[in-house]
Structures are given as structure tokens and as C-alpha cells.
Amino acid sequence: MSSRRFHVEYAPLAVENLRALPKTVAAQIIRKILRLEDGLTGNIKRLRQADFGYRLRMGDYRILFDVEDDTIVIQKIGHRKDVYE
After folding, report:
1. pLDDT digits (tens, 9 = 90+) for 9-56
2. Whole domain around residue 66: which residue ranges?
3. How far apart are CA 15 and CA 9, in angstroms?
């Protein structure tokens, strides 16, 4: 996608979602999110007809986010079976 630098911000719902996850899973997700600062790399897919612009896949978990200029806003984090609801 892109190789520019980004700043990552978390929406209140995403912070709440992270706190509800097991600590080991949350730590893995945070490491994956921090890699986004160096560019939109990884298993990222642009979402169509969804409330969010992109999703990042990490195993059975999905990180839904939007890109606004040079800022990535993490909107929602959850298990793949119910994160899109």
C-alpha cells in the first residue's frame, strides 16, 4: 500500500475492546498495530460497504481502522466472528 510514516490513535471503543482481551492476545495486537506506523503493511484489506475503511488481520482477530491524512485511527478490535457487527 504505502510506505509513509503514520501516527496511531485509538478510539475509546478500541481501548475498551483491548482491555477485554486476554493480555497475551492484546500484547500481540498492540505490536501488530505499532508496525502500522511504518506504513500500511501486513494483511490489510480495504473494506467496502462497511463502517470502517480498512481491516488488519491477526489470526482470528481483526483490527478495524480508518486512515485520516497521516493518522491511523484504530476504531474496533475483536474476534473475526463478531467484530463486523
Report:
1. 999 999 999 999 999 999 999 999 999 999 888 899 999 988 889 999
2. 7-79
3. 10
CATH of the domain at 49: 3.30.2310.20
CB 21 within 8 A of CB 33: no
Pairing type for strands 44-46 and 54-58 reads: antiparallel
Number of domains in the chain: 1
Rounded CA-CA distance 36/6 in Å is 7
pTM above 0.85, yes or no: yes
In a domain, 37, yes or no: yes
Residue 26 in domain: yes
Q: How far apart are CA 40 and CA 6, in angstroms?
A: 9
CA–centroid distance for 72 within its chain: 9
CA angle 32, 77, 27 (to 5 degrees): 40
Residue 84 falls inside a structural domain: no
